[in-house]
Amino acid sequence: MQIQPISQITATETPEIIADRTALARAVEVVSECVERKSTVPILSNLRISGHGTHTTITGTDLDMTISVDVESVADSRFDTTIPAANLKSLLKKASKSDFASFRKDDDFATVDLENSKFNLRTVDASGFPDFQAPKPVSRFAMTTADLFEALDATKDAISTEEARYYLNGVCLASERDCLAMVATDGHRLARKQLLVPEGLDLNTMPRIIIPNKAVKILHKLLKAKDAPEMVSVEFDDCRIKLRFGSVTFMSKVIDGEFPDYHRVIPEWNERTATIDSATLLQCVSDASLVSSERGRAAKLSFGEKDVTVSSNNPDIGSSEARASSRNVDLDEFEIGFNRTYLTAVVKWICPTGGNLSMEFSDNGSAVRFVGSRGDFDAVLMPMRV
Fold this sequence. Notes:
By secondary structure, this protein is an alpha+beta fold. The chain has six helices and 26 strands.
């Protein structure tokens, strides 16, 4: 198949788009991330395909967020329709091999030509496709994709899924005294990643926003891709956020709620500290949990002069303990309990590649701050009675 120059497409011809199939398939896969397959609004299960001369824009939305991807193509600007996302994604992925894909629009159908096979898909007029409003940016900046990915990766697992506290169902983007912070908490655990202030961002006028969990997960996946560009631009107001990286434009509503004052639960300074190898602590927690019950998920940490013992008790089976050396300050004969699942998660957040971690204590009923090998990152874990 030879691509016909857009200048040779006349007004009497059927509107057409011709694009590289691989690029098109990748774009459809990206955009489909935010599309609900079984939406109560039929058009929301479709992708909008719009021609713009030298490129084609593919857009998907679920009303709360939208993703658009520009694909280099020969594209008649009259081509503008919506096609079922699941069907288009499937045929571009599974149909017989071809270099190019072409779209022709005719009344209520679009013909998808893959050189050796053709498909007629029912369309819905693009005039009914929702128009997602971009933010009127109060704040904007650019940062490296690697930094944004790291911040999302560090905080995403602390997001609450409790619907009653909807204001915790996302990652908070907040300004601190001299840095930008991304914070998430589920009420038991808190994760905070601090970032250098990007050039062009005014911390004094920046609104505090909460990026929804679904948007965080999709962004994390897209930014992890091997072909992700080096930089991402961000702009937002107190209602929406927009990110642009490469050919991808991502927009989302933010959560309409107030994120709690997380500084109140992060211990500023505790004189009682313990430093231990993260892998050793994880193994101790794992060993101690071998006789514990699912119902009793507590792990007790007992500190001596130069060590820590992790123990667990199950009335139906017995008890267990595992010991490791640690550097303790003012912790002799100090005991504290944690939910072992939460403790394991926090250790992995703090030291994703291993190394030493530090725990800062006040008393056995107060929050404990964890600091590890992950730069400019800390976590807080609430204790439990044992």
